[in-house]
Write a structure and sequence with these properties.
By secondary structure, the chain is α/β, with parallel strands linked by helices. The protein has helices spanning 8-14, 16-29, 36-49, 60-70, 87-95, 114-120, 140-150, 202-212, 235-245, 248-266, 294-303, 331-337, 351-366, and strands at 53-57, 78-82, 99-103, 125-131, 153-157, 165-166, 169-170, 177-181, 195-199, 216-217, 220-224, 272-273, 280-281, 287-290, 340-343. Helices cover 40% and strands 16% of the residues. Helix 2 runs antiparallel to helix 9 (235-245), helix 10 packs parallel to helix 13 (351-366) and helix 11 (294-303) crosses helix 13 (351-366). The model has no long low-confidence stretch (mean pLDDT 96).
């Protein structure tokens, strides 16, 4: 049998009866948009993230866009974004009419740094989006100090970091707004697109909620206080997420065991695992290494039915959508884009699976 990149079927097998029950309860209730099921999940997720408020939304991208809009960011503003991230981070900036300013990343963690943020701040900078990539948090203390001194907002893109912590505190609650994606392949995944914004700012949460529902006033279905959109969380997705949330810590523990096996078995091989910063507790969404022989390695692993992926082959600042006449020189992100490789990572990986992956890597890289 092969080694899949992720194994959702094994995760769902653990909770099959609970998932069936959740489906039946939502179906019988007749409430498919909002309602008590969504409120129950919002309460559970805010408790988990150790924040006061949670607003369920339609996707992680919607969470970012709505957070920026609720913070009043728009045309004429600049938002600092790491070059090593998924396109949605910068896409959300464009969606509110602002301009993304890309910065390079740490050569060890491949995450945004405080020094990079400091150098990128201009008189137009309104916010910084800190991306907790691969499951590992960025240095929120240092970035937060830089942002506070400049008077700019901080938004966390925690789409890959469910359950991760920085200095013992859950990500999402370390900024003005924390944004999560519950895309099916995430550590906490729905059965489709879903997301959430968490915050300790009640007024901000209410603006996000209003913007996600056509600008409606809370409790007033026919009163629209501002232009918004349709970015609400479905009750079915909320019900599924509530079931899965009860298993999240156990599943993250399974990922952590796999990460420890990888660290031991890859230590003597000519690959460079992405490091986790001191003070960070990763949720191990991805297991990422770097090698200049990535394509050779991918072919050899595929030949042994071992799945891999690349997150991400094009640095965000070089995406055609930005139509830039001149791309900034961001060497760390650009080199990483040609070398990063994501290995299988999920809660049900066995030590035998990881040993097999490491053996194939060793054999492949020993070849001329």
């Amino acid at each position: 049998m092969g080694v899949p990149l992720i194994d959702l079927s094994a995760m769902h097998a653990e909770i099959e009866r609970e998932l069936d029950q959740a489906w039946q309860e939502v179906s019988r209730s007749g409430h498919f948009i909002g309602g008590q099921t969504v409120e129950n999940f919002e309460s559970a997720w805010s408790d988990y993230c150790e924040v006061r408020h949670c607003v369920g939304v339609a996707s992680g991208t919607a969470a970012l866009q709505l957070s920026l809009a609720a913070l009043g960011i728009g045309p004429g503003d600049e938002v600092i974004v790491p070059a090593n991230t998924f396109f949605a981070t910068a896409e959300a900036v464009l969606a509110v009419g602002a301009k993304p300013t890309f910065v390079d990343v740490s050569p060890t963690t491949l995450l945004m740094t405080a020094s990079g943020v400091q150098e990128a701040i201009t008189s137009r900078t309104a916010a910084v989006i800190v991306v907790h990539l691969y499951g590992q948090p960025a240095d929120m203390d240092a970035i937060g100090r830089v942002a506070a001194a400049a008077g700019i907002a901080v938004v966390e893109d925690a789409a890959q970091a469910h359950g991760a912590r920085w200095q013992g505190k859950h990500v999402g609650g370390l900024s003005h707004a924390g944004c999560f994606s519950f895309y099916p392949g995430k550590n906490l995944g729905a059965f489709g697109d879903a997301g959430a914004v968490v915050t300790n700012d009640e007024a901000l949460a209410e603006r996000v909620r209003s913007l996600s529902d056509h600008g409606r006033h809370r409790g007033g279905h026919h009163r629209h206080e501002r232009p918004g959109g349709t970015h609400r969380l479905d009750a079915l997705q909320a019900a599924i997420l509530s079931v899965k949330l009860r298993r999240l810590d156990a599943w993250n523990a399974g990922r952590r065991r796999a990460a420890e096996w990888y660290a031991r078995l890859l230590a003597e091989l000519p690959v460079e695992p992405v490091q986790t910063a001191l003070g960070a507790s990763s949720s191990h969404h991805l297991a990422v290494i770097r090698t200049p022989r990535r394509e050779h390695l991918r072919r050899r692993l595929a030949a042994e039915d071992i799945a891999t992926a690349v997150h991400y082959p094009i640095p965000c600042h070089r995406q055609p959508a930005f139509e830039a006449d001149h791309f900034p020189d961001l060497p760390v992100a650009e080199q990483a884009a040609g070398r990063v490789l994501s290995l299988p990572m999920h809660p049900h990986l066995t030590e035998t699976d990881v040993e097999r992956v490491a053996t194939v890597i060793a054999d492949a890289l020993a070849e001329p």
